[in-house]
Amino acid sequence: MKPIKLYGYCTSPYVRKVGAFLMYKGLDFEFVGISPFEAASQLSKFGGTQVPVLEIGDDWKRDSTPIGHWLDELYPEKLLVPADDPERETILEMDRWVSDRFMPSIFRAAIDAPDNLAFRYRAWRLAALVSSGSPLPEQVRNDWPKVLKGAEFIQAMRPQMNMEVDADTNRMQLAGEIVTRLGEGPFFGGLDRPSIVDLSLFPQMVFGVMGGLEEEISAAALPPLKTWMQRMAGELPANPVLIPDSYVVKPLAEALA
Questions:
Q1: pLDDT range class, residue 238, cuts 50, 70, 90
Q2: Which of 34, 48, 97, 226 is 20 to 30 Å from the Cα of 140, by its Cα?
């Protein structure tokens, strides 16, 4: 089989999404951690700094959803997107919602969270996780709270966030919509197997706890989501979030017990 390399940051939800695709399909791959300050040189052969980038042999693609379609073409054993309508269009519509609404909301704290000790701890922990893939200078890690607050790519996502309500209300609204979209399951779209939607959402929901950013999985307080997450845990490895095992603070099995 051609060698597979995934380039990006373990802290990027879009990179974790692609990692989940590969794990679900049972494909061996190398995760290549990138430094945001050296991305231009580290990704120079791809002609840009956007991640994720997936390289298979001599070919490569970027952008998580197109990568998912590419993987289905190359390795169709476990399709990420159903081949036929209406299931296909249902899943693609849900994936657009995840990409355009849910994913940007993950970055909201960098925009309007108070610059207090709790925010700084989370930022420093994120810097440590980024550094696990491509070491950051100590001063950069110390300045990570400022780096997040000033990150242009995060500010550019602001129009995709619902800034008309506070962050807690927004999280509740998103959780409610996820439960509605899950419906009776067992997976999104009423499918009997995971799709691109399940694999996009799951690693984001468990990353915080596994990476030491949160004490518990907040979504697991909702019984339908906890049942779904336990089901998803059976479809993926014990560490589905691309951080080194030595950096995992709470194992997935413990977090979902």
A1: very high
A2: 48
